[in-house]
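A.,

Following up on our hallway conversation. Structure tokens first:
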């Protein structure tokens, strides 16, 4: 017995007309297109209004820069900061690139931090935080200003109006100890806060030595060997020593006073080399 299978005609299902699909979805598509066009038109209108208002703000004389205020200057002058900032008088304050101005000012080695802000309607404010130079350090053949962290930030020149002690023996070439450098800055801070016989203004040099520790040289020729620690207690004995020397009618300049051992303090005269005499010219007889 044979079973016959009739083949179904699937052509109706496979060939739906396209207009039938558009008839069902056409209204929704048209609505979405209209909404998109309205959104684009609204965005274009808002953008145009913003550009118009932006152009008005940039051209209004009410926002012209009339004053540039500089704050926080000690080593630098206001005119130096204004020259570095390069802000032209009369320029719209909204056109001032504050980040670029800050980068220009911060390029100066004296400047540690700087903030540039606008004070509407017509003022620019430059707040400067300068580095604090605590000493002058010799590195190689040159001298550099160093801050409170012991970092050199500027090569010392004759134009730098500073009265600071010179640190010697601390560079890598001289095999200086980082611990002694930290002690030297502690000593500078102590002398700054406790002016006395060995005030900071009277210190000309602080020398580091792995064997002797720190040695301080004063402007009147004294050499004070302080060692490695307890600088406060050692320096408190200095006025008593100098007073005793004056009672004995001894000169207090050009002395080497060893305070490294408080139990055994020694005082010796310093050998000061005489200035070299110029060589006599040919044919000149020196009598």
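Then the amino acids I'd put at each of the 287 positions:
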């Amino acid at each position: 017995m044979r079973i016959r299978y009739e083949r179904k005609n699937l052509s109706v299902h496979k060939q739906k007309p396209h207009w039938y699909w558009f008839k069902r979805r056409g209204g929704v598509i048209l609505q979405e297109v209209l909404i998109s066009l309205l959104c684009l038109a609204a965005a274009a209108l808002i953008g145009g209004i913003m550009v118009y208002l932006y152009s008005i703000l940039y051209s209004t004389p009410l926002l012209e820069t009339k004053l540039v205020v500089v704050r926080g200057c000690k080593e630098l002058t206001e005119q130096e900061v204004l020259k570095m900032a390069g802000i032209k008088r009369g320029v719209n304050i909204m056109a001032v690139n504050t980040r670029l101005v800050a980068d220009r000012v911060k390029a100066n080695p004296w400047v540690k931090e700087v903030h540039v802000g606008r004070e509407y309607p017509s003022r620019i404010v430059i707040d400067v935080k300068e580095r604090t130079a605590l000493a002058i350090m010799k590195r190689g053949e040159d001298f550099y200003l160093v801050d409170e962290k012991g970092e050199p930030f500027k090569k010392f020149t004759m134009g730098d109006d500073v009265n600071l002690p010179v640190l010697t023996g601390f560079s890598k070439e001289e095999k200086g100890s980082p611990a002694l450098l930290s002690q030297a800055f502690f000593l500078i801070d102590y002398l700054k806060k406790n002016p006395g016989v060995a005030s900071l203004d009277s210190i000309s040099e602080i020398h580091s030595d792995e064997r002797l520790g720190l040695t301080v040289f004063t402007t009147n020729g004294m050499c004070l060997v302080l060692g490695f620690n307890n600088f406060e207690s050692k320096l408190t004995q200095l006025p008593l020593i100098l007073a005793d020397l004056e009672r004995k009618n001894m000169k207090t300049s050009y002395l080497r006073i060893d305070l490294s051992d408080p139990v055994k303090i020694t005082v010796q005269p310093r050998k000061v080399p005489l200035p070299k005499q110029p060589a006599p010219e040919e044919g000149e007889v020196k009598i």
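The chain has seven helices and twelve strands. Curious whether your intuition agrees with the design.

B.
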